[in-house]
Design goal:
Order of helices and strands: HEEH
Strand content: 5-15%
Largest sheet: 2 strands, antiparallel
Distance between the termini: 65 Å
Strand order of the largest sheet: 1-2
CATH topology of the domain at 32-107: His-Me finger endonuclease fold
Shape: elongated
Radius of gyration: 22 Å
CATH class of the domain at 32-107: Alpha Beta
Bound molecules: zinc ion
Length: 110
């Protein structure tokens, strides 16, 4: 029967082989402000509990988590608190749109 010696430290230390350090995820403090919460509530309420994305694959579904999304993204100069710049999207639509916008942004020359 082998006995495991748990009190001895390993003789070889850990070595982080990652090429690039993963940046720590941070949340923009704007999302915690009452102004943002009011904007979000207005966008979600207006949706009637359904995804408003015109390309949604399940547009009539209710009882799902909705994301108040900036149609014209903040990073691209979209209006931060204008309800006209908000659309309630389901998780799938929000992810699809966000990824597409990010890809388009990264493809643009700086
Ligand atoms: Zn959707």
């Amino acid at each position: 029967m082998a006995t495991k010696l748990t009190t001895l430290a390993p003789r070889i230390g850990r070595f982080d082989t990652r090429v690039a350090a993963v940046p720590e995820k941070t949340v923009d403090p704007h999302y915690a402000t009452p102004a943002h919460r009011a904007w979000r509530a207005a966008v979600i309420e207006r949706s009637g509990g359904r995804c408003q994305d015109p390309t949604c694959r399940s547009p009539g579904r209710r009882g799902i988590r909705l994301f108040a999304d900036h149609i014209h993204e903040i990073k691209d100069g979209g209006a931060l608190l204008d309800p006209a710049n908000g659309l309630a999207r389901c998780g799938a639509c929000h992810s699809r749109k966000t990824i597409a916008e990010r890809a388009a942004r990264m493809a643009r020359p700086t």
